[in-house]
Amino acid sequence: MYAVIVTGGKQYKVSEGDVIEVEKLEGEAGTQVEFTALMVVDGENVTVGADVKATVTGEIVKQGKTKKIVVFKYKPKKNERKKNGHRQAFTKVKITKIA
Fold this sequence. Notes:
Elements: E1 2-7, E2 10-14, E3 19-23, E4 32-42, E5 45-48, E6 55-65, E7 69-75, E8 80-86, E9 89-98
Antiparallel strand pairs: 1-2, 1-4, 3-9, 4-5, 4-6, 6-9, 7-8
């Protein structure tokens, strides 16, 4: 059994026990979160659209940041340079139940 959920403007295919990294969610480690399911597949039964009554429950495992990327902008022949870095925040979630 698996489901397709949406969070942070992205869609993820998940099943029970999966650990996924999503855009930052509010909450501490150990907090339960719920996601809206767009599609649920149970064996040969496929449920899509308004017929989906399932909710996907997960547990926050960790809050963190990804590796730093360097953003370097410059204009040639103008002695104009700008160096920045960026670390995207993420939340690691373990899917506990699809019901």
